[in-house]
Specification:
mainly alpha, Citrate Synthase, domain 1, Cytochrome p450-Terp, domain 2, 2 domains, three-stranded antiparallel β-sheet, 16 helices, 3 strands, 3% strand, globular, binds acetyl coenzyme *A
């Protein structure tokens, strides 16, 4: 029995394949590199959801329906974002607002759940700063509208492309902890809102989707490239894990790290973010990889998706406490696709445990 269930196959899926030895991610037959180069969020949503609902699904109709759903959901924020909710970390506030969406199994429910975090996160962030939330614009793509609702400005083409690349890159990733949680809930036929709520709760932990904020803390802590080795050694000496490194499945570099590094370059190259940050990140990455190799020679520990996520989302204007919420915006489509696959093809998930506690005393 392995308590992390590693090597256990717990589902068959046509949605994505993570090859940890080769460092390869395939989403519905398309390699990640091709997908990021050619797709916006709406394209990958159509790819993942096609065939899982009664409706014919294409990217154009998803864009129209998401726009309408964003506009309809805005009233939820105005109705429910009270002081108690706004005192929560952003991802928890988004989860609380999501819990007010009625459970369902149909495509309209899926659209609502994909649109909801895209509306709720920017609105919560603005309200927490004391600014009025900005109404969605149904004519924009999901990525462009998220950035406009966050900053109040229409984003540049590079910024929109950067967020699309991020949302596509993290849209699905095999049976990770949050996706497994989504499938477990779906297997009881509780409904898609319940699946997404379970998944977002699993995502927020620092060992899963909670890492990119701390990556930025690490960059700030190191400050200058020449400090990297000493700062990181000190952290490891104190038993800390270096955020943005290591992965349960990948034994080589996470392919998503390079996809995101490529995506962020146009934003930095066009002067829309401080180019010195990339140089600092590269120096820290090199020092971290060297140190991890020295300290854990038997365990390949490489850069994971969260490392360049931190740089990209920071450059796009998201505060670091919101990074997990942005992850949830992108991963919701994967959670929904897996939930539907489980509901359509799977059985109730009910593994067994081995009892190792005391036995009753003999009478
Ligand atoms: N820094 C330092 N040491 C590490 C790191 C790290 N980032 N990752 C693993 N190790 C060490 C562990 O402490 C462990 O050492 P030990 O055997 O002496 O106890 C050894 O390497 C093996 O690690 P595991 O715990 O077996 O790795 P596991 O597969 O359970 O965990 C995880 C993977 C959680 C991602 C881990 O590498 C980690 O904590 N990384 C930092 C957090 C992070 O970046 N999370 C985002 C992951 S990507 C995602 O979920 C979207």
């Amino acid at each position: 029995m392995k308590s992390g269930l590693e090597d256990v196959i717990a589902a068959e899926t046509k949605l994505s394949d993570v090859d940890g030895a080769a460092g390869r991610l395939i989403i519905r037959g398309v390699s990640l590199d091709d997908l990021v180069a050619t797709s916006r969020f709406e394209d990958v949503a159509a790819l993942l959801l096609d065939g899982l609902f009664d409706e014919h699904i294409d990217a154009t109709s998803i864009r129209t329906q998401l726009g309408a759903a964003r506009v309809a959901l805005f009233s939820h924020v105005e109705a429910a974002a009270d002081a108690t909710l706004l005192a929560l970390p952003p991802v928890d506030a988004v989860r609380a607002l999501l819990a007010r969406i009625e459970d369902g199994e149909d495509f309209a429910s899926a659209i609502r759940l994909m649109a909801a975090p895209a509306v709720f996160l920017p609105a919560v962030l603005r309200l927490q700063k004391g600014d009025a939330p900005i109404k969605p614009d149904a004519s924009l793509s999901q990525s462009a509208d998220i950035l406009r609702m966050l900053t109040g400005r229409v984003p540049t083409a590079e910024q929109t492309a950067g967020l699309d690349a991020y949302l596509v890159t993290i849209s699905d990733h095999g049976l990770n902890a949050s996706t497994f949680a989504s499938r477990v809930i779906a297997s009881t036929h509780a409904g898609l809102t319940s699946s997404v709520l379970a998944a977002i709760s699993a995502l927020k932990g620092p060992l899963h989707g909670g890492a990119p904020g701390p990556v930025l803390d690490m960059l700030d802590g190191v400050g200058k490239p020449e400090n990297a080795r000493e700062w990181l050694s000190h952290a490891l000496d104190h038993g800390e894990r270096l955020m943005g490194f290591g992965h349960r499945i990948y034994r080589v570099r996470d392919p998503r790290a390079d996809a995101l590094k490529t995506a962020l370059k146009p934003i930095f190259a066009s002067g829309q973010a401080d180019a010195g940050r990339i140089a600092l990140a590269e120096a820290i990455e090199a020092a971290a990889l060297a140190l991890l190799k020295e300290r854990k020679p038997d365990r390949p520990l490489e850069t994971n998706v969260e490392y360049y996520t931190a740089l990209l989302l920071d450059a796009l204007g998201f505060p670091r406490n919101a990074f997990t919420g942005v992850f949830a915006i992108g991963r919701t489509v994967g959670w929904i696709a897996h939930a539907r696959e489980q509901t359509l093809d799977g059985r109730l998930i009910r593994p067994q445990s081995r009892y190792v506690g005391p036995l009753p005393k003999a009478a």
